[in-house]
Backbone:
């Protein structure tokens, strides 16, 4: 995912979560089907290189600039297995190999990491996830690049032990 896109942020969330779990204790939560609600706040310039923006028609440019400074909400269901908890859970299935993650806290109730991404749209930030109970989690990631900050907050609730209807 590129800096401005939601998929990059979710990939960073995924990788940060994976490494935090790998470095310590997995979150002590139930396996099975989880519902995750996301609130994404984008503040700053759109993630479009200036040379690409300069080549756009006025209508295309206006549409692109409208993506700055906005709030998006989304909901997903994920199947969380014991293996996911060991390798990192509550993440998007995408992976971004241009990001490095340094776990700072990894316990049964809380995981935190710092994240640094290089290349086009280089950015850095922090990731946190907390088990509020065996059936509820909350967390977020804040990623900052040259001209924008993307903040993703999420809450998750366990639905049931069966993964029917999950996205992974």
Residues:
């Amino acid at each position: 995912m590129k800096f401005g896109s939601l998929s990059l942020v979710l990939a960073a969330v995924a990788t940060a979560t994976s490494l935090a779990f790998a470095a310590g204790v997995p979150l002590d939560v139930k396996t099975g089907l989880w519902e995750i609600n996301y609130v994404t706040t984008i503040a700053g310039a759109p993630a479009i290189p200036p040379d690409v923006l300069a080549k756009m028609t006025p209508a295309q440019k206006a549409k692109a600039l409208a993506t700055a400074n906005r709030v998006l909400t989304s909901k997903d269901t994920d199947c969380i297995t014991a293996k996911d908890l060991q390798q990192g859970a509550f993440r998007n299935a995408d992976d971004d190999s241009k990001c490095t993650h340094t776990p700072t806290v990894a316990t049964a109730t809380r995981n935190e990491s710092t994240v640094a991404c290089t290349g086009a749209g280089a950015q850095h930030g922090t990731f946190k996830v907390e088990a509020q109970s065996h059936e509820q989690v909350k967390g977020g990631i804040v990623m900052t690049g040259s001209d924008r900050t993307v903040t993703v907050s999420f809450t998750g609730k366990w639905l049931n032990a069966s993964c029917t209807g999950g996205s992974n």
Notes: The chain is about 20% helix and 45% strand. Residues 50 and 162 are 47 Å apart (CA to CA). Residues 6-23 form the longest helix (18 residues).
